[in-house]
Every structure is written in structure tokens, then in C-alpha cells.
Design goal:
Chain lengths: 462, 330
């Protein structure tokens, strides 16, 4: 039926364009919210969710109570949901669509499916139509029939779906998010809305988490805080640690920084009724032995906490440490990476630089600038003394600099073992201008009849 | 004059007393009697302190003398660069001082934190570890970098870092005059430095001087570098050790003054510039690796070539695109 016909029948009909993207976002939001029941939530097509509640039902007072709680909460959020519970994903799918609210006891799938139409099997429309055209209208009609002709006629998919529905074949759902190694949560009858309360709660949850981590002899490298709002919104807040941690005070301080940055970013609304703290990744925690006075030898712990706090407030890349890598290209020779402790450093790419020592014991290096621009800045060079020589003057950021002295060139060719091996070579010059500022310039490419090479300013000397 | 001499004596005694009560470093006083700086005027903090704990000697004798022994070690030290394009010079002087600071510490792992705003690093260049290692001996392992978009966050990082024992010195770099960098902010940084006993260097690029809690403010401008030294003497036209022009903008002890200091990248020491300004522009570099050409016997006259150019003397075709033009014959 077209819009015109519909309007003819109901003149005051409201027409809204379909927005699959928004539908998808909504479904993902619901999936996030369903995390409160189980960490294994998968999105099924355009309008369904799979929840694997294996081992979770007893937390909510049994399967029946869980299903009732889920339906009631969705209803209060304003959603009309159909839910079914069964021991196979296929049966649960059918139960949700053809017998909402039904809980299938294990082993009762055959009886349940016998009465259902073929659409309950999640098969494509063409297969369904051709089965119906020969009079096979219910699952029961094909369940006990010979399998070989069915496979020959309709392919293996039909039989596979049937076996999955009846539990003869295992079917795995693919959860949206990885399951945290450990998580602790607390439900509230009266929702929390103050950030201070949440912070205090983090301390309590972390104390519980610490016991579990101690048992596993591990510490957390990444922690996630999930705040479930009463109206179904879920906030995820993640912090990382540069070395495994488990002290509740530390965890609380890290989240304190993170929450301080988010500030208004967390909308408490009507409050949070479930708060969960999970350890996303864990690593071996080496307990240190204290000396006689009870003082533990500290190996940069303070520094690690400092880096973590800054990372929590300003993002992982706020504290960086430079590395030296063997490369001719200046920008590649000193990559920076987020600060991490020794354990995390192992296995990082990049061979450490071999130091060429001279008699004095100091590594011998070519003169390099103390500041380098991430993007070399193009400069305007009106004239050079000789074609392959340094510029006489140059214009950088609209200011003219007269070159007083120049050293060079130092030719740096692209590294042939990399993909950009055919990039033009660079001739670097150390330049001092008339006022004593020292720069590192380069000419990209060589002079030729065809093109005039461009000049760039790449660094600044002390 | 007699009354005024007595008054000066009283003032002198009182200032000494105040310094003693406050437990701070006494100001460098000139004895009213003979006009000589008074020796032994140092008030010791907590009864056990030596001048080495108080001062970070720059190594420039005249500057140290004017500052009364060096820059205060447990303090905020403000270093101003006049323009953003002078950022290399201002950072250079701070790194000279940091390098000196690292040399006298003996912990197994001393770190230097260089923190600045994102804008600052984008405008003046990111710290480059190989250059810092070759000029100042600050290895990549002992360098930590931090950047934040806002000046307030940068100050927060600096304050937190000043507490940490592993971090020997903090270099804070800011551009312009953000509102969050006021007297209170500098006082906080100064207090942190005082508590920890380690310096915090506040680099301010292209900023107008503002009231500051830092006891010392140095204004740095670039100066022409020295020449490279060779066995045959200075090499004309070369760029050798970095040189900075340092001006004392504010100091509780020193009179305003300006100094031209030179950093020795091999010995890692600062010194006053040796060779005045005789090494200005030399366009042609002298021959390297060979003896100097002998002096000319007489005036050199330019003669026209007697015969036509030899074929070998012709510039190559690639060098002169004009030669490649097709020659049209009538």
C-alpha cells in the first residue's frame, strides 16, 4: 500500500521516514542495558537480542523471575517486547515470536515445535513458500519425515535450522562485547544520583574485587565502570593502569580523575540503580616483600600512579615517553608511545638503537634539533646562492629570515625497504639567521629542468 | 652622613634577623662598613644545609655571583622567550639547567618531565629526543613528555609531577598569557617545588611579564652561535655551540643584568661566551682537511681566455637547460 492510498483511508495518518541507523542505535542501547542480566548479549538481526543467561538466572531469583523482571522493566521504559526462554537459541527465538513469555523446559522442544508454523524455524522465505506449496505447513510435518529428500531439495540450511532448534546441533551466539575477567556489582532499590556516592561505592566494589584478584594472584590493567540508569541508559567509563593494580584507594583515585573530567558528561537523570565494576584485563601481580621495618621497596610505583591519573583525566596519550628506533628519517627515529611500565614494554615493535660509542663514552650522533615539527612547515625560499646550496633567505610564517650562516647539506634518502621508497630525497641544512635563531631546513628533491623543489622547515635548534 | 650610616647598619641587622626567623635564604647583603659582600651570611635551613642544597649553579661565574651563588634549586624558575620563534633558545637554556641538575643527582633513574600545551608544541615543535641526547645528554629513557589542550591541565600535571621523587625536574611550557596562569598558579607551583626540593622551570613563550611568585625570572633571546673549533682554529661560517642572551628580568637578590652564555655540548657546561662577536658572517668556508692555500704572490688579474673554451670546460647539458633548447638554423 502506498502512502497515497493510506492517506485516502486515514487522512490524519502520520508518515515518518524509516531510519535504520537510529533503529540500530536504539537496539544497541537496549543491548547495553541488557548487560545487567548477563555479559553475553548478542544482537539478532534488526529487531532481536539474544541473552545467554547460563549461570545468571539464580541471581535474579530463577528464570521465571528474571523473565518477568526483564519484561516489566522494558514495559516501564515504554517498550513492547516479546521474550521467550529456552535451552537453545533457535527455540528461544521461536518462543519469543510465537509464544511470548513462555519458558521451555529442557527437552520439550519437540512438542513445542510440532504445532508451530514453518516461520518459527528462521528459514528464508523462498524455502518456506516451496515447502508450504507441497502442503508442509508446520514444523511437525517435516520433523519426522525423511531427511535426505529435504536436503536434496532445499539444501542443508533447513535441516541445520531444525537441528539447532531441537538442540541436536550446538549454536553459538556472538556476544557484542568481550566478557570481563571479573566483575562486581551492586543493585539499589533507591537510585544513586550523586557523583560522590558513586565514588564511595567504587571504593566498596574495588574492595570486593581485590579479594578476587588476590585469589587469582592478579592485578587489573584496565577497569570499567558501568552505570545503569533507571530509564535504561548505560554509561561505560574505562580507566587503564600502567601496571597491575588492586588497591581500592588507587582504583578510586583513578576513577575520581576520570569522573572529574567527565563532570557534566555523566547525566545522572533519575539516578543509577545498578553499578558494576569490572576488570577488563588482568595481569600477574607481583607482590613485593617488605623489609624489617615494614617498608616496601618502591620501584617507580608513585610514577606509575601519576601517569595513570593523568591518563585517566586527559586520555591515554597524555603522558608519553620517547623511544629511539634505528631509522634515517628524523620523524621516524624518535617515536613516542604512551607511558607504560617495563612489563608492558616487552614485545613492543621497534628495535632499540645500537649506540655507537666513541672514546669519550658518549654516543656519537649527528646534530639533531631539540624541537621537531610533526608536520614539516613549508617555507618560501626566493633564492639560493647556488642551485644545490642553502637559501639566502626564507619566509616562514610570513616573516622573512635572513640566513647568516649555513651548514650542510646532509642528504637523507628515503628508506628503500619501506613502502614510500620512491619519495624524494631531502637535503638538510642547519641554518642560523641574522638574529641567532637556529633552524633545520630541508629541500625536498633535487633541482631539475622540470620542477623547482620545495623547501620545508623541520626543526629548531637550541 | 653619620646618621644614615647608622640607619643602614640597623637595617642591615634587621634584615639579617628577619632572614634568620623566616629560615629563608638571606638576601645578599653588602656590609655597610666596607662595601664588600658579607661572607657566611647564609642562613641554614633546619640547621643542616649546605649551599649545594640551596643552589643550582649555572656555571657562569659572573651570573652565579650576581644571583648570590646560583639559581635557587627548590623554586619555580621562570624563563621567558620573547617570541614563539625563539622557543628553541628559551627551551635550550632551561635544558642547560636541567642537564646540570641531572648531573649532580645520583639516583638510578632520574626523569625529566616536559609538559606543555598542545598548541605550544604544535607552534614551536615537539621535543625531539635525539637532539636532546646529543646536545644536553638527556637520554630518551630519562625523558617523559606530557601534553594537554588547556593551560590549566598543564599546570595540574606539573603540580602533580613536582611531588614525585623520580622526576628530577619539571619543565612547564606555556604560550602567551592564559588566564589560568596567574599569581596563585605560580605560587602553587613554587610551593610544590619548595616542598620537594626540586626545581620547576616555567617556560613562557611570547608572554608579557606578569606578577609571578617565582623568585627568578630570566628572559632569553637567541644569540649567534660560536664557530666550530678545529686544529687550525675556528672554522669560518660554521655553527658551533649554542649561545643564548640571558637577561635577569626579576630576582630578589640580583640587579638586572644581561649575559651572553654559551653551552658546551661535549662537557655539558655553561660558560660566558669567550669570543666576543668577531665571528660574524663568513660566506665562503675555508678548505677542510687540507692546508690553507698559500698566499697569493701578487694581484690577480682576470684575463680573457686566449683560445675558445675547451670542450671539457663546458658546463654539462643538465646544468644549463638553455643548452637543450633546439637550435634553429635559418
Amino acid at each position: 500500500m502506498g502512502i497515497a492510498e493510506a492517506r485516502a483511508m486515514h487522512p490524519d495518518i502520520d508518515v515518518v521516514e524509516a531510519d535504520p541507523e537510529a533503529d540500530r542505535r536504539l537496539l544497541e542501547g537496549l543491548a547495553d542495558w541488557c548487560d545487567r542480566y548477563t555479559p553475553l548479549v548478542a544482537i539478532d538481526g534488526e529487531n532481536g537480542l539474544f541473552l545467554d543467561i547460563t549461570g545468571c538466572a539464580h541471581l535474579f531469583g530463577g528464570e521465571k523471575a528474571l523473565l518477568a523482571d526483564l519484561m516489566a522493566r522494558f514495559f516501564h521504559q515504554g517498550f513492547d517486547v516479546r521474550a521467550g526462554l529456552a535451552s537453545t537459541p533457535g527455540a528461544a527465538w521461536a518462543a519469543a515470536r510465537f509464544a511470548t513469555g513462555h519458558i521451555l523446559a529442557p527437552g520439550s522442544e519437540r512438542n513445542f515445535f510440532a504445532r508451530l508454523p514453518l516461520a518459527a524455524l528462521r528459514i528464508d522465505a523462498r524455502t518456506k513458500a516451496s515447502l508450504e506449496s507441497v502442503g508442509l505447513r508446520t514444523v511437525g510435518a517435516i520433523m519426522d519425515g525423511p531427511r535426505a529428500p529435504l536436503v536434496r531439495r532445499f539444501g542443508t540450511e533447513l535441516i541445520e535450522r531444525l537441528d539447532q532448534a531441537l538442540g541436536r546441533l550446538d549454536e553459538a551466539i556472538s556476544p557484542r562485547l568481550p566478557v570481563a575477567a571479573l566483575s562486581v556489582e551492586r543493585h539499589f532499590a533507591d537510585p544513586l544520583s550523586l557523583i560522590d556516592d558513586i565514588e564511595r561505592l567504587i571504593g566498596l566494589l574495588a574492595a570486593t574485587l581485590k579479594v578476587d584478584l588476590e585469589r587469582r594472584e592478579e592485578g587489573a590493567r584496565a577497569l570499567e565502570l558501568l552505570l545503569f540508569r533507571v530509564d535504561g541508559m548505560v554509561s561505560r567509563i574505562t580507566v587503564g593502569a600502567s601496571r597491575p593494580i588492586r588497591e581500592p584507594t588507587l582504583v578510586r583515585r583513578l576513577f575520581h580523575e576520570r569522573l572529574a573530567t567527565l563532570g557534566e558528561g555523566i547525566d545522572a537523570g533519575y539516578g543509577f540503580d545498578l553499578v558494576r565494576l569490572s576488570a577488563l584485563s588482568t595481569a600477574r601481580f607481583d607482590a613485593r616483600q617488605g623489609d624489617l621495618a615494614g617498608e616496601v621497596e618502591d620501584g617507580g610505583e608513585e610514577l606509575a600512579i601519576f601517569a595513570d591519573r593523568i591518563g585517566a583525566r586527559l586520555g591515554e596519550a597524555a603522558v608519553l615517553e620517547p623511544a629511539t628506533v634505528e631509522s634515517h628519517l628524523p620523524e621516524r627515529a624518535a617515536p613516542v608511545r604512551p607511558y607504560a611500565q617495563e612489563e608492558a614494554r616487552k614485545g613492543l615493535a621497534g628495535r632499540p638503537k645500537r649506540e655507537v660509542r666513541q672514546a669519550g663514552g658518549r654516543p656519537r650522533q649527528a646534530d639533531r634539533p631539540i624541537r621537531l615539527f610533526r608536520q614539516p612547515e613549508p617555507i618560501d625560499v626566493p633564492a639560493t646562492e647556488i642551485p644545490d646550496g642553502p637559501p639566502l633567505n626564507f619566509r616562514w610564517r610570513r616573516a622573512l629570515h635572513r640566513v647568516a650562516r649555513a651548514e650542510g647539506p646532509e642528504r637523507i634518502a628515503p628508506e628503500w625497504w619501506r613502502e614510500d621508497a620512491d619519495a624524494p630525497t631531502r637535503d638538510y641544512y642547519r641554518i642560523e639567521d641574522a638574529e641567532g635563531r637556529r633552524y633545520w631546513l630541508y629541500r625536498q628533491g633535487l633541482y631539475s629542468a622540470k620542477a623547482v623543489p620545495r623547501w620545508f622547515l623541520h626543526g629548531v635548534f637550541a | 652622613m653619620a646618621t644614615s650610616a647608622v640607619a643602614r647598619d640597623v637595617v642591615f641587622a634587621l634584615r639579617q634577623k628577619i632572614a634568620k626567623i623566616e629560615g629563608t635564604l638571606a638576601e645578599r647583603l653588602v656590609s655597610p662598613a666596607d662595601g664588600q659582600p658579607v661572607a657566611g651570611l647564609l642562613v641554614r635551613r633546619n640547621g643542616h644545609a649546605s649551599p649545594r642544597d640551596f643552589f643550582l649553579p649555572t656555571g657562569v661565574e659572573r651570573l652565579d655571583e650576581v644571583l648570590g651563588g646560583g639559581l635557587p634549586k627548590a623554586a619555580l624558575i621562570e624563563i621567558h622567550g620573547t617570541e614563539t620563534r625563539n622557543a628553541g633558545a628559551a627551551a635550550g637554556l632551561a635544558l642547560c639547567l636541567v642537564s646540570g641538575m641531572l648531573k649532580e643527582r645520583s639516583r638510578p633513574r632520574d626523569l625529566v618531565l616536559w609538559v606543555g600545551t598542545t598548541e605550544m608544541f604544535r607552534e614551536a615543535g615537539h621535543p625531539y629526543a635525539p637532539g636532546l641526547a646529543s646536545f644536553f645528554g638527556i637520554s630518551a629513557e630519562s625523558l617523559l613528555l606530557a601534553e594537554a589542550p588547556k593551560a590549566a591541565d598543564v599546570l595540574w600535571i606539573a603540580e602533580e609531577a613536582a611531588r614525585i621523587v623520580e622526576i628530577a625536574a619539571v619543565v612547564v611550557e606555556l604560550r602567551g598569557n592564559p588566564r589560568s596562569v596567574d599569581l596563585t598558579a605560580t605560587r602553587r607551583l613554587h610551593r610544590r617545588a619548595q616542598d620537594s626540593g626540586r626545581p620547576v622551570f616555567l617556560l613562557r613563550q611570547s608572554a608579557a611579564p606578569e606578577p609571578t611568585a617565582a623568585p627568578v625570572r630570566l628572559v632569553v633571546t637567541p644569540a649567534p652561535a660560536t664557530l666550530r673549533q678545529t686544529l687550525l682554529g675556528p672554522l669560518a661560517g660554521s655553527i658551533g655551540a649554542p649561545v643564548f642572551a640571558v637577561e635577569i628580568g626579576k630576582s630578589r637578590t640580583a640587579l638586572p643584568g644581561s649575559f651572553i652564555v654559551e653551552w658546551n655540548p661535549d662537557a655539558h657546561t655553561l660558560a660566558e661566551r669567550r669570543d666576543g662577536s668577531e665571528n660574524r658572517i663568513a660566506v665562503v668556508s675555508s678548505s677542510r682537511g687540507r692546508a690553507h692555500p698559500p698566499a697569493q704572490a701578487g694581484a690577480v688579474l682576470a684575463f680573457k681566455p686566449a683560445v675558445g673554451e675547451a670542450a671539457g670546460n663546458k658546463p654539462s647539458r643538465e646544468q644549463h637547460p638553455a643548452h637543450r633548447r633546439p637550435r634553429r638554423t635559418g
